[in-house]
Amino acid sequence: MKIVVCIKQVPETNDVTIDPVTHNLDRRGLAGVMNPFDKNAIELALTLKDSRDDVQVALLTMGPDDYAESLREGMAMGADEGYLLSDRAFAGADTLATGYVIAQALKKIGDADLILFGRQAVDADTGQVGPIVAEFLHQPQITYAASLRLSGANEVTAERLLEDTKQTLVAQLPAVVSVRSELNTPRYPTPRNIQLSFAKPLTVWHHDDLDLDDSRLGQAGSPTIVTKVYAPEPVKRKLTPLTGTPSEAASQLITALKNRQLI
Amino acid sequence: MSKPELWVIAERRLDHVESTTQQLITKAKSLAGDHFNVVTILLEATTDHLEDELSAYGPDEIRIARDDRFPTATDAELADAIKQLVDQYQPNSILFGATITGRSIAPRLQAKLQTGLTADCLDLRFDDETLVATKPSYGDNIMCEIICPDHLPQMATVRPNTFVATPAAGAATVTDSPVTFHPVDRLQVTAATPVVNTATTVGDATRVVALGRGAASAATIDSATKLAEKLGGRIGVSRPLTDQPRFTHDDQIGQSGNTIHPELIVNFGISGAVQYLVGMQDSQTIVAVNADENAPIFDVADYGYVGDAQAFMTALLAQFN
Lengths: 263, 321
Description:
Chain B: This is Electron transfer flavoprotein subunit alpha/FixB family protein. Chain B: InterPro entries: DHS-like_NAD/FAD-binding_dom, ETF_a/b_N, ETF_a/FixB, ETF_alpha_N, ETF_asu_C, Rossmann-like_a/b/a_fold. The complex is a heterodimer. Chain A is of the alpha/beta class. Chain A is built from 6 helices and 15 strands. Chain A has one domain (2-216): HUPs (Rossmann fold). In chain A, a hairpin with a 6-residue loop joins strand 3 and strand 4 (25-26). The N and C termini of chain A lie far apart (47 Å). The relative contact order of chain A is 0.17. Chain B has 6 helices and 18 strands. Chain B has a 7-stranded parallel β-sheet, with helices on both faces. In chain B, helix 2 (75-89) crosses helix 3 (100-113). The termini of chain B are far apart. Strand 11 (165-172) of chain A pairs antiparallel with strand 13 of chain B, so a sheet runs across the interface.
């Protein structure tokens, strides 16, 4: 059984500022780390690997060469190999163009039974690339899985928590799954596994290594454009007094909360 | 020539419409003016009438596709059905709630349509026919305005409770628009059960009843527990109450405890020291009850009552039933 976990490298802190002159994000001095939610996806893959003899876990990421650090970290957790998709032509991609390259790479890796994603990246917070990849690969998806187990030779059973509903889903593999962070606690790399990780294969694929339509890559292949970046103003609120006896005031509050669909 | 269409995709939650749908209809109407037709897309079973929960909010049209498999359909099946409607009607823009369902279906549809999608938006406007979507990034520290200038439809998911739903006059035209249901047999929803409250900590509760020094008696805490249950939320406390045996540091809201931003927080007997306020002032709806009319908590509250916490709580509980 082959599992591919798609990961992203993100700035180590969300305390980014805006350059007052250029109005661009000032990311100077921000080191990259693996997106924390992606570690839950790796942990799930490793748990499945621990439970069966035949499970191979590969990691896949797209980004500049220093994203190899996150692949190494995942291999130090216990993944078997890493793939880095790195090319100038991929830069500036939005979710659609990112999903396209990742889907093409997954086709080249081939035969993945389970493709895992973290619930979303902590920097851009979209959570879109998993479903986009699932669509491009014509595979069913289970997003925001709260639990997942192998329930047959070629079948997984997952629970998915909607805001107020719990669903149970059964998927025949292959399938794409994104996982909630509550699913597990990611393991730390042990010194031995860190040492072993340096002997594990890390494959770098550039533009020419993949079957790609150039019009779908990078900025040119991205339908969305960021036109403005700014720091949010604090919300100013206007106080509506609740008046009269406690009973009258409570009644006013209930009406207000109903209007806001809170009850 | 007919007006371009601005779509709101209605989301189903068990036997009801998820409330973000109505919020988006109200927002879409205010964006549309005379320039767009607001069309709500509803996928439901043949005998369902979820349109009855939508018409009061005044969309120009409710367009319904019916199939008895829709209530338990999976993301790919729903995205496929919406894709058929998009091909037929060519809308200008499509809005989804940024719920788990919306955030799962919208990107699949985006991939089918090869267009742009902006996630989890906090504001929307149109510059002519270009949708300008404002989305937070970096944990809400940065706002981005994003457009999709050369592709249609333009798509966005919008964070729940960003906008307030307001009933509106005007009779919506209700039309049926058949689609072909293409089942994906490899994935089945085998059970769906309501969950009243999945929050295990005050940090992930969507509704919070917060107690401070002015609401610290055993009776008040008991009432607050009942109120939190009715709201589907959790109790949180300001620092003084962490000394009580019933609470721990994990329950604390504020700079040295949890920073929270629930949909609703009702503060009882909390004056609102700065250290407390920074931990909760980004909550969506803030209610404060305090005996001191000059308490700083009222500066950040949407609704305020000056009076006794226990008396107000008792009155509120009595009217909840």
